[in-house]
Inverse folding.
């Protein structure tokens, strides 16, 4: 009963404890709840020991509890008390019944003892999967006990089933088998987790991100960050956006951007949100928005700027077509200077279709790691000004109204592709989402066009309650929803009404989708126009990482709408904006290729060029053409920053750019080729900038790293395991020898007396037993006599003396005491003389005899 | 934990015994499959931490399961191969000794098993199955091992009390040894040669005292230790009748009661008297397809019959037990002999009562509810006054189902092998009314007549 019950209670207790963290209905009372469960378990254990039938008795019990529950519910002592008493009783009843069924199942039903641990295992996998504290050690620590439990229960149940209660030394037998099994199991778990350690680490690396680090700093688990820190310390937007208990933010500068988007007066900057990803799918299992690479009509341009040669552009016009935007659009330029932003990240407002890595002016190289230029297909109607108050600025208010007016022309979604419409208006169907649907219909009852509906939803979030207090509040720590069945969004919308951008965006998305308006969540950075010092320049800090909603208007395309309400409590102090990296030069010569030779002494390299940008004209060579470059003045950069000339190696892929005045007068025509241009140049050409493109190198190091991690762990583990096993085997076979040495030393060193007689007897018996001379049925005297005959010893005398001392409790005489030591040494000597060393060695490897010896001793003491 | 074995009839073919895995394994495999399926469905949308973690955990658990199960299978396989090799080389020593009785343990058949050399599966179990009476197979059982601690010993000695449902003789023809792993997922069988027979004896139980009068002293060759008074003191008086000797008139009695009584001389018999006990297994009904009658009633009848014999023997009478099919060999131990004879019997419809009961020496006649009432009536007419008729009321073997019984049945699990198992069949059988009617008439007949007893 204890063998099965206690581990179950501990595990269920732990489950309840975890459950308490998620569901407020349990009211953090896990000790009491565990006791309810244990009570059910043990009562059933005892009850069913009396051969009661399970089904009828359990139905009767459930019926009784049901009646009690309805009585408690109907006692009208005060509605509130009754509610709480009844909820309490309900929790008690459910836990008691579960404990009861488990108690019966584990003690009586074989089927249950197999199904139950598997069930627990499944629950734990799901629970562990939902953890927000993604660390290899945490996952292993929370999963290993359940794995252990699973096999333990199946084995223990089988063992109990097959053990006769009347067996002699039952406890002994049980403990011995259990200990053996548990060591086997622990060994297995150790091996399994060692083998899978790299994979756990990989998950930690991939998903742990900044969470682990920030979690440590904040001392809080269950936190969520809109951005994550990469290995090299750079920052990217997260790949998934879940709704969690609290949001982590910091005020580090991520990037600086110049956005060439102004209002028609061409002096008032019109900021736009910078988009990183679109979240089009919502995973109900983990309540997180997800990126869907297969979303229909993909209009997300996502190049990796670190892979594009400097000043060479990458364009994707399909995204413009996929944006379905024809009305009121134009092309806008932007330049992004990265500070903490990851080199491979590409952020741009609206529908970006062009990416060109550019060099950072030399004086800013310390500050900015890399930069790129982007071109976007931007709507004139789009603007970051939607929520934050344009009050006081008549032009902005007018613009806002104008924009709404225009978008009100869209009254329905007729003519929109059905697949597209279905995808972007999909929402899961269950009670939780139905209540969101009802709310959406309520608050947009008067709105007719999609635009009005959108405004109604915004107004709902900004509305005030009966006491004149804002209905919704911004909070980075909204807490975890309490009711078991409630989704986090429902908790946000109907109860807590506090949340950060993901909550507002998520809730808006589902309300819009419930109304049949195609929409998606967009993530990236919100743009704040803090000063008019440098119009069009914006500074982006980590706490500006953001999520908002995009709504589709046929003809106009996707429009940004941000329904997150301002954070009134922690109004951000304006960040000091620095100086933007101005005086950008256009290079006259850009060559992309691999280094064919390297002369570090004269600082000249030879480059095999395939692609060339000369006076803004693009040339491609079918076979690489070599050119020598003078690099003494060049600054060499990587994505991570400036590096020294030593970083250059042969066969490295680089892009070299030159602003040299001498190149200004050399003209090329469109009929020129790479080779013909090179002929016009005086070599070596002085270059000002070299960018190393780490494509293969980075991959290879990563591969090596992971390989190392894997093979290192595995070999290490195999070694340790092998050594341990060898050591244990050695120890096992040395056991007789070690025991003998201990006994022998004790016998020799003891002071003559009764104690010495006992020690001599023990040492001698062990020695003889180990050599195969075991006394089976004869009396001690007869046994000693036979030995004496065999070895020519005087064991008989000693044996008689020993028996006399043992049973009469009489002290041995002085003469007898003095004879003990010589007797012992002589006897051992005699025996050794008769049995060869090889025979003795073989005999001392027989561990079974040693075990038999100790077993005999045990039964002897029992007998006494 | 009590071990019980339930015999099942020959429907199950022996090849089923050689299936190397158990029901638990199928259950576990099915459970694991469902777990795998469920987790896979849950993790269907890749690209987030949740599905990656659970996929990895799933991988870990499946890996652990495969490793453990492989280990389990290996332990069993090694033991199996070892035994097969030893058996092939003819070095296997197996000893199955079965004794019918063991007084210390409620007279259950006792099996002692000794096998060597044998490699026990690591952490696993050894089980056995026995084939008996041609087509019957015992359930798998695990005997109690003598030296359970010597995990590495190659000698296996164990014993087992076989809780057999029927009181009868058994012929054991074959046995199987099963190697089972620690989870009992695998179970590999190896047949072992056995040939032995024994019987399941009827148990002892209390019955009311019998007033039996020995009818005959056949041979005065056996002295009893205590001299028995053949007739009691007060029984020795009778009313004076014409032919009585006047000298025998007990005058003190006359003085007190004014009644003339004569004393019958006390006789002391120093020789044991023979009690001829006739027991019939005759049935006048068709009972072949009634397990309640064939097993439950027969057990009940045999138990009571054995206890009647025991009671008679304890009184010091020399007994001649005469069942209707008296072809069993005589044995030295009289008590054991009778017990075995009883155990060997079954209901029969060939030897009628009239055919084998000799009324001139019968001290007691034991009949069951299955004997036709008319035949008994006939016998009773012809009987000597001192012959005791004992009726064993078979319907008592099944308790009457009252409402309380139903309530207790609803909530309390019944012992296996109990009357419950046969109750439904008995309640639904067509012969039930005829048998009960016959029993009713028999009870009436026995109540009408003196020197009768109903048990």
């Amino acid at each position: 009963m204890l063998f099965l019950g206690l581990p179950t209670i501990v595990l269920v207790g732990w489950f309840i404890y975890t459950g308490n963290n998620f569901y407020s209905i349990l009211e953090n009372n896990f000790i009491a709840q565990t006791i309810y469960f244990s009570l059910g378990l043990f009562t059933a254990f005892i009850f069913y020991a009396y051969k009661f039938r399970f089904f009828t008795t359990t139905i009767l019990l459930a019926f009784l509890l049901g009646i009690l529950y309805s009585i408690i519910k109907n006692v009208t002592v005060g509605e509130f008390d009754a509610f709480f008493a009844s909820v309490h009783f309900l929790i008690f009843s459910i836990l008691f019944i579960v404990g009861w069924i488990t108690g019966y199942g584990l003690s009586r039903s074989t089927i249950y003892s197999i199904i139950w641990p598997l069930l627990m295992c499944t629950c734990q996998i799901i629970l562990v999967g939902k953890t927000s504290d993604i660390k290899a050690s945490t996952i292993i620590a929370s999963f290993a006990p359940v794995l252990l439990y699973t096999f333990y229960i199946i084995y223990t149940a089988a063992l109990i089933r097959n053990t006769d209660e009347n067996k002699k030394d039952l406890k002994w037998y049980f403990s011995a088998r259990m200990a053996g099994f548990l060591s086997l199991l622990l060994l297995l778990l150790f091996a399994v987790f060692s083998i899978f350690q790299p994979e756990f680490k990989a998950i930690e690396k991939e998903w742990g991100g900044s969470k682990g680090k920030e979690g440590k700093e904040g001392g809080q688990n269950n936190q969520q960050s809109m951005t994550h820190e990469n290995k090299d310390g750079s920052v990217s937007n997260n790949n998934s956006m879940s709704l969690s208990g609290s949001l982590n933010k910091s005020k580090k500068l991520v990037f600086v951007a110049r956005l060439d988007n102004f209002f028609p007066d061409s002096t008032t900057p019109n900021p736009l949100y910078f988009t990183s990803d679109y979240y089009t799918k919502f995973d109900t299992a983990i309540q997180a928005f997800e990126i869907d690479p297969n979303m229909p009509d993909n209009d997300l341009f996502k190049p990796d700027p670190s892979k594009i040669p400097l000043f060479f552009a990458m364009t994707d016009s399909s995204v413009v077509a996929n944006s379905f935007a024809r009305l009121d659009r134009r092309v806008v330029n932007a330049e992004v200077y990265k500070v903490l932003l990851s080199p491979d990240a590409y952020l741009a407002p609206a529908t970006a279709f062009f990416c060109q890595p550019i060099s950072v002016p030399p004086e800013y190289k310390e500050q900015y790691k890399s930069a790129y230029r982007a071109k976007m297909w931007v709507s004139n109607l789009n603007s970051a000004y939607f929520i934050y108050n344009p009050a006081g600025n008549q032009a902005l208010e007018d613009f806002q109204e104008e924009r709404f007016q225009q978008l009100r022309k869209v009254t329905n979604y007729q003519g929109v592709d059905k697949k597209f419409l279905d995808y972007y208006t999909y929402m899961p169907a269950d009670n939780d989402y139905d209540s969101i649907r009802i709310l959406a219909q309520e608050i947009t009852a008067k709105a007719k066009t999609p635009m009005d509906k959108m405004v109604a939803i915004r107004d709902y979030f900004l509305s005030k309650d009966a006491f004149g207090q804002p209905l919704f509040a911004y909070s980075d720590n909204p807490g975890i929803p309490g009711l078991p069945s409630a989704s986090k969004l429902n908790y946000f919308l109907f109860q807590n009404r506090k949340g950060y951008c993901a909550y507002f965006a998520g809730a808006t998305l589902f309300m819009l989708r419930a109304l049949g308006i195609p929409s998606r969540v967009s993530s990236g950075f919100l743009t704040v126009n803090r000063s008019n010092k440098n119009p069009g320049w914006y500074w982006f800090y980590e706490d500006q990482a953001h999520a908002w909603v995009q709504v589709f208007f046929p003809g106009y395309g996707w429009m940004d709408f941000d329904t997150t309400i301002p954070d009134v409590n922690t109004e951000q102090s304006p960040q000091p904006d620095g100086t933007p990296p101005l005086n950008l030069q256009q290079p006259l010569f850009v060559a992309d290729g691999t280094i064919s030779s390297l002369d570090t002494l004269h600082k000249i390299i030879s480059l095999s060029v395939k692609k060339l940008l000369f006076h803004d004209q693009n040339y491609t060579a079918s076979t690489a053409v070599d050119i020598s470059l003078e690099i003494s003045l060049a600054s060499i950069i990587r994505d991570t920053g400036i590096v020294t000339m030593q970083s250059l190696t042969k066969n490295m892929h680089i892009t070299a750019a030159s602003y040299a005045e001498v190149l200004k007068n050399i003209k090329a025509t469109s009929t020129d080729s790479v080779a013909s241009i090179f002929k016009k140049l005086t070599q070596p050409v002085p270059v000002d900038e070299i960018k190393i493109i780490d494509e293969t190198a980075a991959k290879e190091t990563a591969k090596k790293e992971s390989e190392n991690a894997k093979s290192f762990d595995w070999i290490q583990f195999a070694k340790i395991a092998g050594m341990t096993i060898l050591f244990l085997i050695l120890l096992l076979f040395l056991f007789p020898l070690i025991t003998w040495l201990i006994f022998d030393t004790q016998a020799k060193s003891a002071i003559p007396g009764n104690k010495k007689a006992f020690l001599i007897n023990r040492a001698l018996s062990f020695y003889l037993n180990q050599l195969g001379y075991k006394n089976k049925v004869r009396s001690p005297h007869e046994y000693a006599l036979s030995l004496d005959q065999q070895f020519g010893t005087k064991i008989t005398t000693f044996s008689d003396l020993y028996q006399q001392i043992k049973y009469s409790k009489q002290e041995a005489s002085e003469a007898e005491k003095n004879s003990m030591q010589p007797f012992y040494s002589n006897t051992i000597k005699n025996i050794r003389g008769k049995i060869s060393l090889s025979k003795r060695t073989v005999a001392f490897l027989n561990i079974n005899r040693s075990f038999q010896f100790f077993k005999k001793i045990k039964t002897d003491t029992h007998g006494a | 934990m009590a071990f019980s074995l339930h015999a099942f009839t020959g429907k199950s073919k022996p090849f089923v015994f050689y299936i190397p895995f158990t029901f638990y394994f199928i259950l576990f495999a099915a459970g694991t499959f469902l777990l795998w399926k469920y987790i896979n469905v849950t993790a269907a949308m890749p690209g987030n931490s949740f599905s990656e973690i659970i996929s990895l955990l799933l991988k870990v658990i499946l890996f652990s399961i495969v490793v453990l199960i492989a280990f389990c299978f290996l332990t069993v396989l090694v033991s199996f191969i070892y035994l097969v090799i030893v058996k092939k080389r003819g070095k296997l020593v197996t000893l199955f000794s079965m004794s019918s009785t063991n007084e210390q343990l409620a007279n259950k058949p006792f099996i002692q098993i000794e096998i060597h050399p044998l490699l026990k599966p690591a952490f696993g179990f050894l089980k056995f199955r026995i084939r008996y009476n041609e087509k019957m197979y015992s359930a798998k059982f695990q005997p109690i091992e003598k030296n359970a601690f010597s995990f590495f010993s190659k000698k296996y000695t164990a014993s087992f009390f076989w809780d057999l449902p029927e009181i009868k003789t058994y012929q054991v023809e074959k046995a199987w040894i099963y190697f089972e792993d620690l989870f009992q997922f695998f179970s590999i069988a190896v047949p072992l040669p056995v040939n032995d027979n024994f019987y399941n004896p009827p148990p002892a139980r209390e019955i009311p005292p019998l007033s039996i009068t020995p009818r005959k002293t056949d041979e005065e060759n056996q002295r009893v230790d205590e001299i028995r008074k053949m007739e009691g003191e007060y029984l020795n008086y009778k009313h004076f009748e014409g032919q009585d000797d006047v000298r025998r008139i007990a005058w003190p009695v006359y003085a007190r009661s004014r009644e003339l009584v004569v004393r019958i001389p006390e006789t002391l018999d120093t020789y044991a008297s023979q009690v001829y006990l006739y027991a019939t297994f005759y049935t006048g009904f068709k009972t072949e397809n009634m397990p309640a009658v064939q097993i439950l009633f027969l057990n009940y009848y045999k138990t009571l019959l054995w206890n009647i014999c025991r009671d008679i023997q304890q009184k010091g009478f020399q007994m001649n037990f005469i069942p209707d099919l008296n072809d069993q060999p005589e044995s030295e131990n009289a008590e054991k002999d009778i017990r075995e004879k009883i155990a060997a019997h079954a209901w029969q419809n060939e030897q009628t009562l009239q055919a084998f009961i000799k009324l001139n020496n019968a001290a007691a006649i034991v009949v069951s509810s299955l004997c036709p009432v008319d035949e008994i009536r006939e016998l009773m007419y012809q009987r000597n006054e001192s012959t005791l008729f004992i009726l064993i009321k078979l319907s008592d073997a099944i308790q009457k189902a009252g409402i309380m019984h139903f309530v207790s049945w609803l909530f309390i699990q019944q012992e296996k092998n109990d009357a419950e198992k046969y109750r439904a069949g008995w309640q639904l059988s067509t012969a039930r009314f005829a048998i009960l009617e016959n029993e009713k008439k028999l009870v009436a007949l026995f109540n009408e007549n003196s020197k009768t007893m109903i048990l």
Summary: Residues 79 and 710 of chain A are 62 Å apart (CA to CA). Confidence is low (pLDDT under 50) at residues 209-224, 482-486, 707-712, 859-864 of chain A. The longest helix of chain A spans residues 696-749.
